[in-house]
Amino acid sequence: MNIDIEVPEGLNPKLTALGWLVGRWEGTGNGNDHEGNEFQFEQRIEFSHNGGDYLFYAAQSFKLGADGEADGEPLGMESGFWRPLPDASVEVVLANAHGWTEVLVGKIQVTRIDLLSDAVVRTEHADVTHSAGQRLYGKVDGQLMYALDRATTEHELRPHMWAQLKRV
Questions:
Q1: What CATH number has the domain bearing residue 106?
Q2: Of 33, 51, 56, 85, which residue is least crowded by CB atoms under 10 Å?
Q3: 43 and 165 in contact (C-beta within 8 Å)?
Q4: Is there a binding annotation on residue 160?
Q5: Contacts of 25 (CB under 8 A, 6+ apart)
Q6: SS3 call for 52
Q7: Is residue 6 one of the residues assigned to a domain?
Q8: Is residue 81 part of a domain?
Q9: Residue ranges for motif GXWXGXG (predicted)?
């Protein structure tokens, strides 16, 4: 069995289980907004490290027009920190530009990470009443695949965004 694990130079040994995420990833995906409308988007995600026991994460998505080209309209942006623990669990803290912060917890299974919301805090004027989330990240054939499910105060957990990204 060939497992595609990478350990970038200078990576804190505590981050070895997340080493395969490090880098910049880009691609396109599909989604359903909080009202159930379908959309396509361009995604850019970057995982980086600075020697600490966490990865820094930044993600941006941009709306795609009917022609499949990015129209420059941002759909969202989030940043945060991913911190693996010795028992193969991981804690993720994210801040979203739409007015919420989310803490997710989950398990690392080689090149698959499953995450569930532990807590969500929204600002009074958050664009969406995000209340819970579930995420799956995985490396398949050298690409980063992810799926994000979201619940709001208006609907239960359901698929929100999913994409296939290439390392650039």
A1: 2.40.128.20
A2: 51
A3: yes
A4: yes
A5: 43, 44, 45, 46, 47, 144, 165, 166, 167, 168
A6: coil
A7: no
A8: yes
A9: 23-29
3 state SS of 105: strand
d(CA 126, CA 48): 28
Residue 155: inside a domain: yes
pLDDT band at 60 (very low <50, low <70, confident <90, very high): very high
Q: Which amino acid is at 41?
A: F
- What's residue 1's pLDDT? 46
Residue-range definition of the domain harbouring residue 30: 13-167
Q: 162 - beta bridge partners?
A: 30, 147
Our CA angle for 123, 116, 43, nearest 5°, is 75
**8 lies in a domain?**
no
pLDDT digits (tens, 9 = 90+) for 109-126: 999 999 999 999 999 999
**Are 157 and 150 within 8 A, CB to CB?**
yes
Residue 39 β-bridge partners: 31
What share of residues in the chain are helix, strand, coil (percent, to 5)? 5, 65, 30
Q: Which of 143, 138, 139, 135 is nearest to 159 (CA)?
A: 135
Average pLDDT rounded to a whole number, residues 21-38: 92
* Cβ proximity of 81 and 57 under 8 Å: yes
Question: What residues pair up with 76 in beta bridges, in sequence order?
Answer: 61
